Amino acid sequence: MNVRLSWLGAAAMALALTGVAVAETSMSRSNNPTENLGALMGAERLALGAMPEAMLTHARPKEAATQVSYDRNWIAKQPTATGGDQFACLAKALYFEARGESIKGQFAVAEVILNRVDSRKYPNSVCGVVNQGAHRRNSCQFSYACDGRADRINEKAAYARVAKVARVMIDGAPRNLTKGATHFHTTSVRPNWARRFPNTAKIGTHLFYRQPS
Question: Which segment of the chain is annotated as a signal peptide (predicted)?
Answer without folding.
Answer: 1-23
